[in-house]
Amino acid sequence: MNLTQDKIRRTLVSPVLYVNPKRSEIDVRMENFLFCSRGLESKAYKGTIIVDSNGNSFKIIRVKPIGKIKLWTSIKYFSPVVEVIPEIDGVQKLTLEDFKRLIIDTVSSKPKKWSSLNSIKQIKKMIECCDSYKDVMKIFNLRIK
User: Fold this and answer.
1) How far apart are CA 99 and CA 132, in angstroms?
2) What residue ranges do the domains of the chain occupy?
3) Mean pLDDT by 10-residue block, N- to C-terminus, for the chain (145 residues)?
4) How far apart are CA 61 and CA 130, in angstroms?
């Protein structure tokens, strides 16, 4: 299923988190999964799971380039970047417990990567105490209200 960027923004309930368990990546900035470095389109975001604050999850199969992003964005990321549209494998509901497990497993797979946030033991405790998807997302971005 191909989605336009506008449709993605309208479909997802903010805040949104994307997680790539294979690369131990977690981010809550929407703009980070709407573009990628030129030449990496075929590999970028494959297997990434987008989860919104209602627990709707979208697994990205691949992304399709739709053009270049403004020059200032390429300068910001020190690389030519292209705007992309993700091709997703439908929409599924992810339970809060499954979401927590996904995040804990992802963080646990590369503890050194997450050490600046806290110890893995503390991160797990924080996640386990969360009562909503949004609360889990707040751990990775304190700007979420």
Assistant:
1) 10
2) 5-140
3) 59 84 81 61 75 90 73 71 76 94 94 88 96 94 65
4) 29
